[in-house]
Structure formats: C-alpha cells, structure tokens
Design a protein that fits this description.
The complex is a heterodimer of chains A (about 70) and B (about 700). With about 70 residues, chain A is of the alpha+beta class. Chain A has two helices and five strands; from the N terminus they run E-H-E-E-E-H-E. Chain A has one domain: SH3 type barrels. In chain A, strand 3 and strand 4 form a beta hairpin. The chains are: A alpha+beta (about 70), B alpha/beta (about 700). At the A-B interface, helix 1, strand 2, strand 3 and strand 4 of A face helix 3, helix 10, helix 15 and strand 12 of B.
Chain lengths: ~70, ~700
Amino acid sequence: MVFTTGTEFVIEGLKESKISAKLIAMGILPGSKIRIIRKAPFGKVYFVQVDQSRYALREEELNSIVLSK
Amino acid sequence: MSDANYKIALVGNPNCGKSSLFNKLTGLNQRTGNYPGVTVTVDTGKVSNDIDCIDLPGAYSLHATSDDEYILTNILLDKSDPHHPDQILYIIDITQLEKHFLLLTQLIDLDFNPIVVLNMIDEMEKGKVSIDIDKLEKQFPGLEIILVSTRSGQGIQSLRDRILLKKPATNSAYKIFNPEGVEQEAIAYMRKTFNYNNDYQAILCMHHSDRLVHHDTQEKHVVGHWKKEHHFNSLRLQIDETLARFDEFAPRLKKTYSNRSLEDSFTNKADKIFTHRIWGPIIFVLAMIFVFQAIFAWATFPMDLIENGFSGLSSWIGEIMPNHWTNDLITKGIIPGLAGVLIFIPQIAILFFLITLLEEVGYMSRAVYLFDRVMQKVGLNGRSIVALISSGACAIPAIMSTRSISNSKERLLTILVSPFISCSARIPVYAILVAFVVPSISVFGIFNAQGLVFLGLYMIGIVMAMLVAWILHKTFKSKGKSHLMMELPGYKIPNFNNVFLRVYHSVKSFVLEAGKIILIISIILWFLSSYGPGESMQNARDQALIEMNASDTPDENLIASKELEASYAGRIGKFIEPAIEPLGYDWKIGIALFTSFAAREVFVGTMATIYSLGSDDELTMRQRMRNEINPITGNPRYDVPTALSLLIFYVLAMQCMSTLAVVKKETGTWKWPIIQFFGMTALAYLGAFTIYQLF
C-alpha cells in the first residue's frame, strides 16, 4: 500500500498480530479515520493523526491495519 | 521502602502526567531502585512517613508488549510483590480521556478500585475540553474522581489530603470483563490450579504465563501445555477483549465530554517545521551544536572554580598537616579523587537540564521520529538517539537515559555502543596529542588542520558506534519484536519543577554511584604510584639526589619522576611494555595508559608526573614531550605514528570505571560491562596497532 502524504484512510480492521494488539491499545481503532500527515526524512516512518492523537508509525506498523480510502 | 507502609501506586498511560504528579507528591523524597531481574527501574518516594508512593511504568494496557509494561502487569498480578499497591491512583490526561480509559477498566476488573485522577483540568478552562462530571459519575457508578492540574497545581492539595486518609476508594460497580467459551474454561482451570480469586486476574495470568515472575518454570510449562491442548488463541482473544472494552465504554464517555484539543494550531504549525523532511534534520543538528556549545561554554567557569577550590584545599591541608603518609593520602589520593568526581557535575547538570527541557517541551519524540529509520538500520531504535546525544558529554547519563527503550536488545545495544561517542573526558587527551599529528595551520583558508583532526576523531567514534551496533545486531537474537509505534504529544511549556528535580536526581545519582568508584580507584592509584616493593622508593630518591648533585636546590619534580618509575605503577608500566611496543609506546606511556583505565582524563596528570613537570600546563607539557627521544630509533618519541596510534586508542578504548559501574547497574549483571571492557579495549589495541604499523 502506498501512503501518500495528505491522504486519509478509514480503519476497517486490524490484522491478527502483536503490532495490531498494541495499536488498538494505543487507541487506533476500527471505524476511525487515519490521516497521513507527513513522511520522515529517511523514509518508511510516517507522522499520522487518528482522532485526537498524533503518532509516529513505521510502514510495517501501518501495514498491519486494514485500510480503505 | 518498608513492607509495613501503606503503598500507593501511580498508574497511567505514557504522557498522562504521571511523573509530574509523582514529583509533586514526593518532591526531593524519592529513590530510583532496580526492579529485581529486569533492567527497568521503578521510582519510589514518600508522601508522608508511613505512605510510600510508587511510580509504575506507563502502559496502554495490561496486555504488555514491552519489558517496562511487563513490570506493571507483574506487580499488579502478584499480591506478594513488594511493590504491589494498597491503593492505585489512576491518572488520566483529559485531552486523551477515551484512550486512557482502557487501562482503567482493566484495573477495575482486577478489583483494584482505583482513585481516578483527571489531570490537565486547566484545559477545561481554556474551553478545549468539556466534561460533565455528574454525567460521568452516573455513567460509571462508584468511580471516585479527583480533578487536578499538575501544571497549575490545582487540586493537588485535596488529592494529598485524600491520600493521607488511607481510606480505600469506593467500590466501582462498573465491570466490563465478560468471559466466553474457552476463556471460561481457562479461568476455571487457573482458579483451581493457582487459587486465583478474580476472573480477570486468572485470564491475564493465562495470557501472559510465559512472562509471569510469580510462576516457576514448571508452572509455566503446565500452563503452556494447557493453552496448546485447548487451542487457546491468546492474541485473538486479547484483541477481541480490547475492542469489546472500547465498544462498551466509548459510547458512554461520548455522552459526557467533547474534545477539540487537537485543533491546537501551535503544535501543528511547529511540527510543519520541526518534523519537515529537510528542515527537521537541519534544525536537529543546529540544536545539538547549541547544546554542546552550551555545555562547554557554561561549564568552564564552574569547572575551573571546582578545580581551583580543590587544589587550594589540597595545598592548604598539605601545609597544616604533619608530614605523614596520611597527609599524602588526603592531598594526593582522596582530594584529587573527589575533585575528579565533582568536576563533572557542571557538565552533567547542564546536559541533563537541556535534554530534559527538550523532552518536556515534546521535542525529543520528534527527534526519535526523524531518525528512527537510520537507527533501525544498525539495530538501534529511534529512541537511542537521546542516549547517543548525551554520550557526547558523558556516557553515564546517556546509559541511564536508555530506560525509555522498551525492546531489551535495542536497549542493550545502545548501552554497549554509547561509550564510543567521544565524551568530554577525552578532550584534554586529544588536545595534547593532536599537536604531534598536524601543526596548527589553516587548510583551504578556512579550516584549522588540528580542528579537522579533532572532528575526524569524533567522526571515528560515531562511525564505530554505528558499525559495532550493526555487527552486534547481526550477531544477537532479539527476544521481542522491535517497534516504533509512538505517540507524539502536543508541544507544551516545560514544567521547571520536573526539570530541576530530574537534574537534581541525575547529579545525585552520578555522585553517589560513579563517585564511589572514582574515589576508590584514585586511592588505589595513589597507593600504586606512591609505594614500591622493598627499599626501591628510597633507592630511587637517592639516585635522583646523586644525579642532581651539581645543582644546589633539590629538584622535587625529578625525584617524583624517579619515584614513579620505581613504584608499583612504574613496574606495571614496564611489565606491559612488550605488549604495547607494537603500538609505538614505551613504559612511560604504559603508566599513563594504565592509570587512565580508571578515567581518561588522568592521562594528562600522569604524563605531567612522568616527565617530572610541576604543572600539567598544556604548552609546557607539549614542549617536554617534543624533546623526548626514542632511544632505539633516535627519533622523537612522539612522532606522527605514535601520536596517531595513541589518539585512536583513546577514541576506542573503554577507559572509564564509572561507566562500567553504571552499565552493571543498568543491565543487572557484570557480563555486559566485562564484554564491553575487553571488546572495546581489544578494538582499541587493534586500531592503534594497525595505525602505527601503517605509518
């Protein structure tokens, strides 16, 4: 999946993984919108916004979320 | 901490203001202790004489994923744990109310009846968040709620009064956990086998059986077997449980509050610059240059004061005390030892002040975001950047700062490579030796050649840190999965109370922990360089007196030099001479190498003594070293290859007892400091050998 800066996705669900379990506990929940704010200088890490919080997530961490446009 | 005391524990998500509240409640009355068996520390303090306060590691959920989160889970699940609290204060940042409710509902299901502390109520007055407390109490019957602001101090006194009552909180009637299917079987099995008396405790112990401190290997095996036999899909069940919790409490919460806190235009605007793909790293580098300039510019004056104060004290005591060996011990062993510890306080205090400030305002998490990718490539974590920065001043606070790295392998690697970054103690050594490598001329009109060599030495340190991290990364197996998954809190005005307490505790811990070692080592060094076997010291003295029979005034410096040669330290220098000859060193350098294993900066003082100079003034010393001739080749002793080889040795060698002591404290075993000591020293030997043989 390509995470272009400025795009917004809907969180459809989370894959069954340890990363997902942690993301859910951090408040990244199905039904919320996730917005890619920007990409880190050396790539593969993203600054995102979910509801009232900002997060730094690696690409593989974003990939454990099932997203739709 | 005493077992008989009433124990309250602070629990909450990361960034909920837990540490601020801990500082407000306990002030200077706190202590950092190692939690047995693990490397993460638990801070404890006192609210009153008979009430202990425990600051437990921040976590999002009792379904732990990192070492520090497992500490929380273990303490709460095991009633016999010395940190197991009588009362929990659960801290919630009201701008994150919904997220922070998850862990609260888990605590309630464990029958803890926490007192809920709603923090940041000053945000309510600004109109960004509104909560209807009456409705909240109706939606969650039985919750005892106290409103505070750790920033403005509002409500802290009533919270303190409430704690002093030592009265259990009201029973919360709001429970969520509702086990089904295999969960019910698991609970029945765990309750029967281990006598757990709470369903949620039983299921948590099933989920996390491998990591429970209060289960032995046999019990872990039995539970593991049960899980396999009953197809207990732990991960799926954990995810479902968490989602079920949010589904249950989130709609209730929505009826009680509204939140517009992210429309905080300042943070959004600042992040556009600070986390920008190009400006972000540039600003970071500039900030680091400022930090190091500040350390060196601001610390010089207090450091000179300490140094002059101690040398004054030493000569004053030397004069008033009778001429006895105790006089020598105090003026040449204990006082220089104390000075060697205290001299670093200004640098450590300034560094901690600036780093804590950057953390408090929320900048550090942005640096972690910017550099996570680079760090990941060599097996470190974005969070390692904080430690690597600190190492530029001193590896000791740097190693202490790795506690924030949750992955144990990444934390260990960060601890192991931090001492490669050139610290402030190497500067005096570099300053003396660099003159023997290149003259102070300008290159391309703008750079100073010596400045470039200095820069090169720092770069070698950074490159070696990365390279060694990468090699170790490829060698070690990782226990847990590495992850970033980090919240980026909004920028905020720093809480200076927190900053000053942090500086105070870091300096105190440095003086007490590292100080002891430095002091002991300098006393041992004093002994080794003041005494020799049998009559050798007296003979050396007589020999010196004969040599200078021509002059009328006895040259104390020459006597000191001869005595050092005859002392145990001198003998050690001669003993290791064959080993260090291939690096281009003689026994005199050997003594300096040997003594600087306690602390690098001792090199300069030892060289001054060896070359019988009264002072360790840089220019006098350089002149004397230039005149030193290598008896075998007839060339100057400090030629380019020897000086370069020595420089490389000092860049790479692990010559700091205090760092080793801190590594032992932080990793909980002597294994890592020993590996670090021999590994780095072997590397230094090889590096110096290669350089010397090449030139």
